[in-house]
## 1
Amino acid sequence: MLGIGSIAKKVFGTPNDRKIKATRPLVEKINALEPEFEKLSDEGLKQKTAELRQKVAEGASLDDLLPEAFANCREAAKRALGLRAFDTQLMGAIFLHQGNIAEQKTGEGKTLTATFAAYLNALVGKGVHVVTVNEYLARRDSEWMSKVYAALGLSTGVIHSDMPHDAKMTAYTSDITYGTNNEFGFDYLRDNMKSELSQLFQKHHHFAIVDEVDSILIDEARTPLIISGQATDRSELYQTIDAVIPLLTEEHFTIDEKTRNVTFTDEGNEFLEEQLRARGLLDEDATLYDPESTTIVHHVNQGLRAHKIFQKDKDYIVRNGEIVLVDEFTGRMMAGRRLSDGLHQAIEAKEGVEIKPENVTMASVTFQNYFRLYDKLAGMTGTAATEADEFMEIYGLGVVEVPTNLPIARADEDDQVYRTAREKYEAMIEEVRKAHEKNQPALVGTTSIEKSEMLSQMLTKVGVPHNVLNARQHEQEAQIVADAGKLGAVTIATNMAGRGTDIKLGGNVEFKIMEAIAANPEEHPDVIRKQIEEQHKADEDAVKAAGGLFVLGSERHESRRIDNQLRGRSGRQGDPGRTVFFLSLEDDLMRIFGSERLEKVLKTLGLKEGEAIVHPWVNKSLERAQAKVEGRNFDMRKQILKFDDVMNDQRKVIFAQRREIMEAKDLSEIVGDMRHQVIDDLIDAHMPPKTYADQWDIQGLYAEVIAKLGIDVPVMEWAEEEGVDDEDIRERLIKAADEYMAKKTVEFGPENMRSIEKQVLLQTIDTKWREHLLTLEHLRSVVGFRGYAQRDPLNEYKNESFQLFESMLDSLRESVTQNLSQIRLPTEEEQRAWMEQVAAQQRAAQAAAPQPEMAGAEAETAEADEEPGAPLPGFDENDQTTWGNPGRNEKCPCGSGKKFKHCHGKLS
Ligand code: ADP
C-alpha cells in the first residue's frame, strides 16, 4: 500500500520533478534555435560570442542570453567534437548555471555539460574555473573541451603544480581555467603572500564548477591546504618547560589512556603558574587562563604528554641523537616522520637531544572555505542526493537529480549476506569466475588496497586473469578502467581508482584506434578506424549479450554515496548491467551498526556454510544504519566547521585588507592614522585618564617614544611645564612624529616612501598573521583543556580568538609605526651586502621551489617557503649607487633594455 507521501508524490510530482519540468521550456527554446545556428559559419559562431559579450557589457542578464549561448555552444561542440549534447545535458548545464549541483549518472557526459555553463558565465569576462580531482583529469578535460571553447572564440588554460609562473598566469587569464582543487587552493594562498597586484593569479572568484563535487566538498572538505615554513629556534622554551615537568606529582594531572590526552588539575595549574613565573615564562600578574598564555599552556601540555604518554623504546627510540617514531601496530621504525604541534620538540627536550625547529603554518585554508569564496559555485557528480542536506546547509547548493538520457536498464540486486568473511569472499570469487567464463566483464570494488590484493590472490588461484587498481597512478588507471568493459575483463579496484573515467562496454574505441594506428604505421588511419569501429561494434554487442558490466561490491561503505558510486559504474547510457554487494556478519558495518534484530533474524534462519541470505529487508535495515552514520558524520563535520569559521572570518578580514593595501596608491594616511593611534595608546598607558601628574610615568613614556616613534623629544620637560595635560603632550608628540616622518619622506622621495610604506605594511601584516595563526592553533588545542565548568569550548574559542585578533591588530600598528620610524637610507656597503643576500636567496629559492603540503596525519614534511626579497627600498634607475650588484646577463637597471654587461656593466 502506498503511504500518504508516496500518493502525494504521484499526484504532484517530487520537488525534483518540478525543477526538471521548469527547465523544459528553456530546453525547447534551445532546440528551436538549432536550425538557425547550424547555418552559421565557423566564423559566425565566434561572431555570436562577441555579440553576446557585447550584450552582457550593456547590462543584459545571463539568464536572458542562456538560450542563444547554449545553442551556440551545442553547435560548436557538434563541429569540434562530433557530439550533439543531449537535452539532459542542457538541463544539467542549466542547473549548473543556476548554482546547483547537477547529479548526473556516470557516462551521461558531465564534461561536455560543464562547457555550456562555463561558456555562458565566461561571457562576463571574469574567468570561470573548472575544478577536477586530479591533474590527469584537468589536462584531459581541458584538452578535450578546449576545442569547443576555441570554436566559440574563447581561450582555455590549465594549471598544474610544477608550472612556471608566467605560464600559470596565462592559464589564469584564459576565459576558462581547468585545474585541481589542490592547485586552485594553493594558488589562493600563494596570492595572499604576494605584494604586487599584477602578480595575483586569481583576480576574481567569479564562478567555479566543481567536478566530483561530493568527493571535494564532503570527503576532502576538511583537508586543510597548508603552506608552511620553519619557525625560529625555540629550544630554550622547550628546555625550560621540560625542566618543570618532572617536578609534577600525581595530584597535578590526570591521564586518559584511551585518547592519549592529559589534563592538569587545579592544583597542577597553580603549581605550574608558580614554576613558570619563577622561570620567567609567565608574567607576575598573568595566569594560565589568560588568552595571552595560550602558547605556553599548549607547550606545557605537550611537555606533559611527552613525559607521561610517550614511552622510550615503545613509542619511539633514540638513534644517533634523533627521536625515531615507532609504528604502534607494526613496530616498524618511521624514520623522518615528525609529530606536529611541538610534540616532537617536547620529546627531544625530554631525551636531551638536539631540538629541531617546528614548522609553522604560513597560510592555510580548507577546501570548504576556499570554495565558499566564489560568487557562484556549482557542482557535478554521479552521487549527491544522499548528502543534499549538507550541501544546502553548508554551501547553499541545491542538488538536482538530472534524468538520464536513456532509461537505466541495470539490475541492482539485493545484498547477499554470509556468515563469515571467508564464505563471502569465496562466493565472490565463484561469481567472478562464472562471469568471466561467459565473457561478461566484472568490476570488483573493495575498500582497501589490502583487500584488493587478497582478492587478487584468490582469483589467481582459480586462474582468472585480472587487473588490480588502487588509485595511485591516475593516468594509467584511466586507461585500464577504460578497458574494464572489454569482453571477459576482470578488474579489482578500490573506491578511488580510475575516478572520472567511465567504463564503456566492449572497451574504449578511441583508445583501441590509437593503439592500432600506432601498431600499423603503414596503413591509412581512416582504414584502421573503420576496421576497429566495426570490430568494436561486434565486441560491444557481445558484451551486452553477456549481460553488460557486472559490479560486485565486497563490503558496504559507511556512506551510501560511495556504494552508489560503485554501482553507477555499470549501466551507462541505457546499457544492461548487474550490481550486487556481498556482505558478511563479520564486516565492520554489520558488526558496529547492523541492528541486533538483523542478527537475530539471521541466526534464526540458521545460515549454513556457504549459504547467503538475500532479502530486501536486509537492505533496508542496512540503509537505515548507513543513514545514521552519515548523519553522525555530518554533525561532526558541522561542529569542526564552526571552529574553522572563526578563523575563516578573520582570514577574510586580513586578506581583504591586504588586497586593499596592494591596490592603494598612497597609504600615507593609513600609516599616519596608525601612528596617531600608537601615540594615543602610549599616552593612555603612561598618563591614564583621571590621574594626576605625580602618577604619570613620564620616564617610561620617554623611553617608549624613542623606541616606537624614533624621536627623542623632551617629554620630561614638557610634563613639568605649568598647566600641561595629557592632551597637550599628545598634540606635541603627534606634531613631532609627523614632522619626523615628513622629513624622511623628503629624504627618500615621496614615491619611494609610498612604496616602502606598502612593503612594510604588507610584510608586517604577514608576520603578525602567521604568528596569530599559530596562536589560534594552540588555542584550539587548549580550550578543552582549561576545564571550564559548563562552558562551551566553541564559545570560549570564539571570544578568545577575537581578543587575540584585536591584540594582533594593536601590535600590528605598533610594529608598522616602529619599522617605518627606523628606516634610513642604507650605506653603499650595506646595499651591496643586501643585494648579494637577495641574489643568494633567489638562487636558493629556485633550487628548492616551495613545496606546499596537504596536512595529513601528524607528519610534517614541508620545506621552508621564503618569498624572494622585495625590491630594494631607495632603488633609483638614474642612480647607479642604488643598484646593488646586478647580474651580468640581466637587463641593465637603467632601463635601457640592454643587458647589464653591454650597458652600464661594460668592462672597459
Ligand atoms: P561522465 O563524467 O558523466 O561519466 P564523461 O563526460 O566522461 O561522462 O563522458 C562519457 C562519455 O560519453 C564520453 O566518451 C563522451 O564522449 C560521451 N558523450 C558525452 N556527451 C555525449 C553526447 N552528447 N553524445 C554522445 N556521446 C557523448
## 2
Amino acid sequence: MSKNPAPPIPSDPVISLQDVEKRYHRGGEDVHALNGVTFDIPAGQFVVILGPSGGGKSTLLHLMGGMDRPSHGSVVVLGRNLESLTSDGLAAYRRRDVGFVFQSFHLLPGLTAEENVALPLLLAGTPLKERQSRANALLARVGLADRAHHKPGQLSGGQAQRVAVARALAADPPIILADEPTGNLDSKSGQEIIELLRSLAHQDGRTVIVVTHNEEFAPLADRVLRVRDGQLIKDDVKRVPESPERPGPLSTRHVSFFALVRMAWSAITRRIGRGILTGLGIAIGVAAMVLFIGLGSGLEAGVVKNVTALGPLTTVNVSPSGGHSSPFQPAVSQGPVKPITPATIQAIRKIPGVRGVYLNLTYFTNARFQNRNTTIDFLLLPPPSLWNVPSILPTLAAGRVGSGDQDILLSKTIAQALVGPGHAPRTILGRHLTVTVQAMTAGLFSGGQSISPPTKRIPPLTLTITGLVSTAGVGYLAYPLGARLTPDFVPPGQGQTYPGLTVITANLNQVTPVANAIQKMGYSTTTLQQALGTIEKSFSVIETALGAIGGIALVVAGLMIGVVMSMAVLERRREIGVLKAVGARRRDVSRLFLSEAGIIGFTGGVVGVLLGAGVGHIIDFALRHTTAQLGPIFVLPVWLIGLGLAFGTGVSVIAGAIPASHAAGLNPVDALRDE
Ligand code: ADP
Ligand code: MG
C-alpha cells in the first residue's frame, strides 16, 4: 500500500474523524463495523467512498451524519464534537448542517414532491410560503419544476432520487452525504445523479461525500477513500479545493402547530378506513357517556322540579311518630306515638320563626265525571292566608286557583283520563266532578303509614274544576273543605287527631331550628331541603354509575387507539426514520403522532356528542308524553358537550402517548434499516 504524498491540509477541516470505532451486538456476538478510522475532509471536497458490501461504508456515513454515535473515537464536524450534542442537538445538526441522500430515496409516499423537498424546512419552522418557493426553486434546479405536485409513486427512480437531492438541499446545508445514491438506478440516471452531486461541491462549495461500490465514479471524485472490513485502506486525494464560501446555516424556529396538524391530517386521510374505525370507537364511548349522563341529569332535574313543585323550601312537614324520618323511609316509631292534636297546632304556632301551620293530609276518593269513574288522591291546598308565600301553590298548567270552598285543581293526566281521548284536558275546566271520600291518610312527606276510613258517612261532594296542575296524578281540595272533613274520621269517644302538619317558616334559616323545636316536642319532621339533598345524592350515584359505563366504553376505545397507533408506529418506522434523518426532534415526532391521535379523538368526540344527543332526544321524544316528567328527560348542558369532547380527545391522546413516545425514541438508523 503506497502512501500518498501528504496533501496540504486546510486549517479547519469540515469533518474530522479520529480513531472511530463502531461495534454492534448481534445475536450475542460483537460485530466490528468500524475499526479505528481516522481522516479529515476539507470544505468543498467531492469525496467518493468505495468498498465492498459490509465494509462499514454506511456506518461511516451515519456517524458523520449524526444519525448514530460511535462506540469509540470522535467525530468532529464544523468544529463541534458530535459526542457533545444531545439528541435534540444532533437533530438540529441533521436539520441544518447535513443533507442525506439514500439508496432507496426514502421519500414520504403521502406527500407531493414539493412537500417532500420542503419537509426539512417545515421541521425548521419556516413559513409555508417560503417553504413552497424554496422547494420549487430546488425542484427547478434538479430539473423537475414540472413534477412539483406529483407523489413519489408517480415518479421514475431517477426523478425520485433528484427529489431526494433537492430535499437534502432544502436547508442549504454545507454537507451532503449520499449512501449508494445510484444503487437503485439505471446507469444513465445514476450518472446524472453523480453529476448533480458533484455540482453541489464544485458549484456550491458544499462538502459532498458519496458512498458507492461503482468503480466508474472514482475518476469523477476529488478524493477516493477505500474502506474494507471497517478500516480505511486507501486515501487518494486528487484535488484540494480552495477554501470556498460556506453556505450559512438555516435559522430554526419551532415547527408550526398548523403544519404539524396538516401533516397529521394527511397521515390520517392516507389510511382513512382505519382512522374512521378508531374514531368510531371513541365516538361510541363518548356517545354512551353523553347519553347516560344527559339522561341522569334530565331525570334528576325533573324530579327536583317535581319536589320543589310540592312547596317552598321553607316547609317543615310534621308527622306523629317519634324520631326522625326521611321521605323514602317512613319514620320508624321509637316508643309510643305522640298524636297530633289541635293543641299541637297551637304550640307549634308559638315557636319563633313559624309563619303558618296547616293540616297536611290526603283523601283517597272515588270520582265520577259524566260516565267515567276514577280514583283521585286529593291533597289540601294551603289556607288562603298563606297563598302569598312564594311557590306555595302548585304550578298551574291551565285555569286558575279558585277561591271557593268547592273549587278544586286536578292534574292534567287525571283530567285527560276523565275527558277521554280526543278531547283536550282543559275542556274539563269549569265542569263539576262528583267525589266520594273513601279514606284519609298523611300528606306528602308526613310518614303516611296509617290509613283511616271515615267513622261517619260522608255524602258525595259536588266540586268544580277551576284549574289544572302539571304535578302527576293528584288533585287539590280547598283548605276549608278539607279541614271540615277531618272530624268525620274521629272514632267515637276519642279526641281529634291529624295524620300530619305542614309548617311554613319565616325564612330558610329558620327551617332547622323550627324542625328541631318540633322534634323536641316528640314529633318527627321532614324538610324539603332534606328531601332535595337525598334525591340529589341518589341521582349523583346513578349518574356516576351510568357515566362509568360510558367511561369503560371509552377506555376500551382508547385501548383500541393505542393498539392501532402501535401498529402504525411499526408500519411507519421508515417514515419516522426519514423524519428523524431530515432533522425532526423527538418532540416533533411525538407531537405528530399525538396530533393524529388528538384529531381522531376530537373528531370521534364530536361525532359521539352528536350521536349521544341524537339518541337522547329520541328517547326524550318517545318518553316525554308517557311519563309525568315536568321537564325534558334528556338534557345536554354545555359542560356535558365539553366533557364529551375533552374525554374523546383526552383518552385518544393518552392512548397514543406510549406509541408516540416509542416512535419519538426510535434511532433513525434502526428505523431506516431494510429488514
Ligand atoms: P456497507 O454499507 O459498507 O455495506 P455497513 O456499514 O452497512 O456496510 O455494515 C458494516 C457491518 O456492520 C456489516 O457487517 C453489517 O452487517 C454490520 N451492521 C451494520 N449495521 C448494523 C446494526 N444496526 N446491527 C448489527 N450489525 C450491523
Ligand atoms: Mg451500506
